[in-house]
């Protein structure tokens, strides 16, 4: 299973293909109940990302909320920020009676996003035609790089200083990050940093029933045509027994270590 994950990390791929793979990864645990939380930016350009997750993961795996209706627990805000404490609420919602004598899987998917035009190493990042007007995507992450003073940006700025590492400084230093790649690299770092916030909550939350947590951090590529996606990392925390076991496969969260390449015309990210 780990080898299969490693083949997915850092490679641009079709939205539906990645979500189908996540569905199969989660289904393989054989849990009687699967829950899901999806965290995205509020930007309307993320509609394809949300629709694909609903169609290929939620509609297949989650319990019915109402007749004919299955739904993930959702967070959508500026910059796709995880709100500490949300995991506890989602976990409680999906701790149905049948999980108490068995277990459940809770899939948490975090999507940062970046506008992309072109392919592979020659692609351009950060700006898109929105309603016939050029604008940035993700706007919140661009505001972070521009030093804007907004509550959401202030929260992002604090997170980008995690572990006393000045990630914004790395992104703005052309010796560490090529300026034309900043928009991509800030989205990659944001996805991983938001996932780490989720992982912090997993470590401190006492689940209502035995739980396997799967945390997938990804970046949506908002394209003029069909969007694509890049999986940054996958964390699995198995709390069915004590002590829990944790595994992680994926990229780190330091922009200066990312390297842009391509495979068959698709973006590939590696690290130094």
Question: Which residues form runs of ≥5 with pLDDT under 50?
Answer: none
Order of helices and strands: HEHEHEHEEEEHHHHEEEEE
Kindly report the oligomeric state of this protein. single chain
Spatial extent as radius of gyration: 18 Å
Strand content: 25-35%
Fraction in helix:
25-40%
Q: How many distinct helices? A: 8
Sheet with the most strands, sense and barrel status:
8 strands, mixed
Give the integer mean of the pLDDT values. Answer: 96
CATH topology: Beta-carbonic Anhydrase, Chain A
CATH architecture: 3-Layer(aba) Sandwich
Provide a descriptive summary of the structure in words.
The protein has 8 helices and 12 strands. The protein is of the alpha/beta class. The longest helix has 23 residues. The protein has one domain: Beta-carbonic Anhydrase, Chain A, CATH 3.40.1050. A hairpin with a 2-residue loop joins strand 6 and strand 7. The protein is globular, with a radius of gyration of 18 Å.
Which labels suit this protein?
12 strands, alpha/beta, single chain, Beta-carbonic Anhydrase, Chain A, globular, 30% strand
Condensed summary:
The chain is of the alpha/beta class and 272 residues long. The chain has helices at 2-8, 15-27, 47-61, 86-94, 139-146, 151-159, 167-172, 182-204; strands at residues 12-14, 33-41, 73-77, 104-117, 124-125, 127-130, 133-136, 211-222, 228-238, 245-250, 258-263, 266-271.
